[in-house]
């Protein structure tokens, strides 16, 4: 069960087990850093062209999505939300290249969900002060236990939704390769790794933005 949830162990680093998910996650982060460096160096003039057009398209798309979902006053969340979407998106679709997606590891999706959980309540408290806690007893005090359970369920549902969908796709593709090892399932890869991967990235991003906005408003 541990191997299924956390991915196969590759080696130990001073007694710390390093799984395949960790190694692939390092690869994803390296790709993001490299792309950021390339795109940053492509910005050389006020007249965009080539890679600069691509970089500006990404930034404008993320800014537009954040402002339309969270409001213009929350535009400052765009860098984090953009990074979150790009990381999860690349982590999901990297299975196309034969690597195990890090998001098929419950530790990775659980950490991302906990980050969202912390941001929800941090910005809710920052926005409303101690009055933020009054919302847990609304509409009447009897709803306090249910509201607390509902808040605690958010990181659980976020992590297992992302993990379950990506892991299921990885497992199905593995079974296809077991049945027909010489067959390259292009269409299943396009669906489970590309389409479903980007869709789940978008869903995680939207839920994160919606939860934070509801906590602040």
Automatic annotation (TrEMBL):
Gene3D superfamilies: ATP synthase, F0 complex, subunit A
GO cellular component: plasma membrane; proton-transporting ATP synthase complex
Family annotation (InterPro entries): ATP_syn_F0_a_bact/chloroplast, ATP_synth_F0_asu, ATP_synth_F0_asu_AS, F0_ATP_A_sf
Top-level taxon of origin: Bacteria
Species the sequence originates in: Anaerobranca californiensis DSM 14826
Main location group: membrane
Bilayer topology annotation: Multi-pass membrane protein
NCBIfam families: ATP_synt_6_or_A
Localization, UniProt: Cell membrane; Membrane
One Pfam family per UniProt: ATP-synt_A
One Gene Ontology MF term: proton-transporting ATP synthase activity, rotational mechanism
Segments traversing the membrane: 21-39, 77-99, 106-125, 162-184, 190-215
Protein name (Swiss-Prot/TrEMBL): ATP synthase subunit a
Annotated family: Belongs to the ATPase A chain family.
